[in-house]
Specification:
It is a single chain. By secondary structure, the chain is an alpha/beta fold. The protein has two domains: 277 residues, 3-Layer(aba) Sandwich (Rossmann fold), CATH 3.40.50; 202 residues, N-(1-d-carboxylethyl)-l-norvaline Dehydrogenase, domain 2, CATH 1.10.1040.10. It is built from 20 helices and 14 strands. The strands form four sheets. It has a six-stranded parallel β-sheet. Strands 4-3-12 form a three-stranded mixed β-sheet, sandwiched between helices. Strand 3 and strand 4 form a beta hairpin. Helix 6 packs across helix 7, helix 10 runs parallel beside helix 13 and helix 10 crosses helix 20. The radius of gyration is 23 Å and the shape is globular. Bound molecules: D-mannonic acid.
């Protein structure tokens, strides 16, 4: 089957939406680090829309840091790909033209650094996942002993980490003409722009201190909140693309219909006409961010561990079980008490909408995928609201249940003894701890609860600690389904 390409764009079937501008002549204006499914279904779609309404050379140079897969998917098809929007009814297919180049750091590092340095580039955006920053987020400090970071401190001319590549690119730009730049973090971290600002500055202090004044004066780090449920692409998505498009698309991504992007209005450069295509520019993203991380992502994690421990494949199947649905809603209500008012949002409606989105029967979002990397996700999703409630002297039974479910997941087996692989940035460390306490899961969990990076001071609270341990004991004996039902 012929691959999707520029020359066959005009031959797509009528229902397939396509770029409403001259893709072939589009120049590059954005470098994006982390060209995975999420970027392709989110920021690239907004950019495609913005170019169609407002023009401008806002083509995206997409970069993969760890794997050549995206390049192999996109380059042979002129970097075109489709988004399959699924809702349970008829799927909607749309071809995106905004990505104009796909590079892999493994063998194109020089080109990537040159792209960040070139004056045409005005924005460097990132979706490298929580663990991709290799940082202690609470302390806003790179993990200096992380192998990639340690490597980059020695060889900043050959960087491997996201931070290293970014700083090397910034340095090349500083040396060239030093034109301003906007660095736009799009990962699910609290105050993501502020955190990235601090990480870049601390890293720069060690490798290129002479760049600090320019960094301070010319590079902006606005925060942003991104939202769209985008599961890993399924093998049948590629097969189905042939029927839907008439051409085979190896870069297809699937996504829910919902999409949201809120950005702090603090750029050092121009930007695409994103404000004309649904992106909200605000003075502070903080209230939006807390709501999204604590309600959506918090409930997502609760559902992921609940379902994974019962051997349930997807989030939709998990939220279809009444006990899990009410635990997710219970968590949202509990965490909602820690939020400031969000301009233009009714938090009750937001929660109802989230339950509907999670239940989307067509999305096929695996519990296993969301369960990944809890050590990097829990602090902003579950622990921040717990801390907030502790300060008011209030317990957090639903968050305690979710934390306990994560701790059980870390054991690598459920109450029935079925085993699973623990996918976490720190799984080696957890596995070593667990092995030392083979016959004593409670001792293992007590040890993990002392981890400052994840729990900070919250587990110094006897209330929280004992709530978690009680829930853990219940999940270990009876499973998440029975424990969640008891909670309700
Ligand atoms: C999910 C998120 O994998 C996860 O941890 O909670 O990727 C979630 O789907 C997105 O943040 C939705 O915007």
């Amino acid at each position: 089957m012929t691959r999707l390409s520029l020359s066959n764009l005009p031959h797509l079937p009528a229902p397939v939406a396509r770029p409403d501008y001259d893709v072939a002549s589009l120049g590059l204006g954005i470098v994006h680090l982390g060209i995975g499914a999420f970027h392709r279904a989110h920021q690239a779609v907004y950019t495609d829309d913005a170019i169609a309404v407002g023009g401008g050379d806002w083509g995206i140079c997409g970069v993969s840091l760890k794997s050549p897969t995206a390049r192999a998917q996109l380059s042979p098809q002129d970097n075109l790909y489709s988004v399959r929007e699924v809702s349970g009814g008829t799927d909607r297919w749309r071809v995106i033209g905004a990505v104009r180049e796909t590079l892999f750091a493994g063998d194109q590092l020089e080109t990537i650094i040159a792209r960040i340095a070139q004056g045409e580039t005005q924005i460097v955006s990132l979706t490298v996942t929580e663990k991709g920053y290799a940082a202690d987020i609470a302390e806003r400090e790179p993990l200096w002993s992380h192998p990639d970071i340690a490597h980059d401190l020695e060889r900043i001319d050959q960087p491997m980490s996201a931070l290293g590549v970014l700083v090397a690119g910034l340095y090349a730009r500083f040396r060239k003409r030093g034109t301003p730049l906007t660095v736009l973090c799009c990962d699910n971290l609290p105050d993501n722009g502020g955190v990235l600002h601090d990480l870049v500055h601390r890293f720069t202090e060690r490798v290129y201190p002479q760049m600090l004044p320019w960094l301070r004066d010319s590079v902006a780090f606005p925060s942003s909140v991104v939202d769209r449920i985008v599961p890993a692409t399924k093998p049948n998505d590629v097969a189905d693309s042939a029927a839907a498009l008439g051409f085979s698309d190896h870069g297809v991504v699937r996504a829910e219909p919902f999409s949201q992007w809120v950005i702090e209005d603090a750029f050092a450069t121009q930007r695409p006409d994103w404000h004309r295509v649904g992106v909200q520019f605000v003075e502070s993203v903080a209230p939006f961010e807390a709501m999204k991380l604590r309600l959506l992502n918090g409930a997502h994690s609760l559902l992921a561990y609940s379902g994974a421990l019962e051997g349930i494949e997807t989030i939709a199947e998990t939220v279809a079980k009444p006990a899990f649905r009410s635990a997710a809603l219970g968590l949202m209500r509990e965490s909602a008490t820690t939020l400031d008012a969000v301009p233009g949002v009714d938090v009750g409606n937001y929660q109802a909408q989230l339950l509907t989105r999670f239940a989307n029967p067509a999305i096929g979002h695996r519990t296993w995928q969301v369960a990944m990397d809890g050590s990097q996700k829990l602090p902003q999703r579950l622990i921040a609201p717990v801390r907030h409630r502790l300060a008011r002297g209030e317990p957090s039974p639903f968050a305690s249940y979710a934390v306990a479910a994560w701790l059980t997941y870390l054991l690598g087996r459920n109450h029935r003894g079925d085993s699973h692989v623990v996918a976490d940035a720190r799984s080696v460390e957890f596995e070593a701890l667990r092995a030392q306490r083979e016959n004593d899961p409670l001792a293992f969990v007590a040890q993990v609860l002392n981890d400052q990076q994840i729990f900070g001071d919250t587990t110094a609270s006897e209330t929280f600690r004992s709530d978690v341990l009680r829930q853990f004991d219940s999940i270990l004996q009876h499973g998440t389904a029975a424990s969640a039902a008891a909670l309700a």
